[in-house]
Amino acid sequence: MGKEGNLAEQTGRNTEKSEEAQEQVEKAAEEETKRLNANVPESLHQAVRMEAARRGVEMKQVMVEALTEYLPNYSSE
Questions:
Q1: This model's pTM is above 0.85
Q2: For the chain, how far is it from start to end, CA to CA, in angstroms?
Q3: pLDDT (tens digit, 0 to 9) for every residue of the chain, 77 residues total?
Q4: What residue numbers bound the domain in which 34 lies?
Q5: How many domains are contained in the chain?
Q6: Angstrom distance (rounded) from CA 39 to CA 17
Q7: Basic and acidic residues bias located where (predicted)?
Q8: CB atoms within 10 A of CB 30
Q9: For the purposes of burial, counting CB atoms within 10 Å of the CB of 67, is it exposed (0-12), middle (13-18) or buried (19 or more)?
């Protein structure tokens, strides 16, 4: 039962994070944009490109969503 409880709690946290991330992505879509250039491994670039194609969105949207979900976990604020 301990594992089930932990799984349920983790699922709830993931859902909350996803909802918060979605809200942040929607807010970001309304903001002015700045260019961000980064050299990434070809395999990562291909993975982002494939995910964007799979979902029918621009690579920019995949990257904004990924950064929006990642940064709060590693921010000192």
A1: no
A2: 34
A3: 444 556 555 555 556 667 777 777 777 778 888 999 999 999 999 999 999 999 999 999 999 999 988 888 886 65
A4: 2-74
A5: 1
A6: 28
A7: 14-35
A8: 6
A9: middle
